[in-house]
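Fold it.
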Amino acid sequence: MTTGKILFAKNNGTHVVKLVGEVRLTLCSSLEKMLNKPDFTSVIIDLTDADTIDSTSLGLLAKLSIQTKKNLGLVPVIISTKDDITRILLSVGFDRVFVIVRELEGYENLNLDMQEIICEGNLEQSAQARQVLDAHQVLMGMNKGNQKAFSELVKQLEQTQPDPDPKDKGKS
């Protein structure tokens, strides 16, 4: 199995994110930082070279899709050629927040200069736990099946979170 990495390219406002190998939590901070830059007009997620993808990464991708639809009115595309990866995507309800395709017409003609995004896998434990919690809360919000599948994990993660600053109560 290939160690995971994230490749990224832009082409005329289209952001292409290619996830390669074993896509795990250690890649998520880099992925989240990159996805928080709203300077795109469309998004393509290429999973054709992904071997596995963990639920935290799925949660971040779901968050990306929800934000893209809310801010731009667009539904991102996922290219997935591997049946096991596609089955995971469908099992968490990604067909409701992404357009999932086996191939995308014209994709190979985009002339992409894919650059590797450096992994920032050394987040503090509390920041990592917050990231895992946020990702799973997004997944839970997608459907009842995810709510059931991830509720116990989310409950445990919520118990490990520090109490919010009393000055911040009621601000959100």
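The chain has five helices and seven strands.
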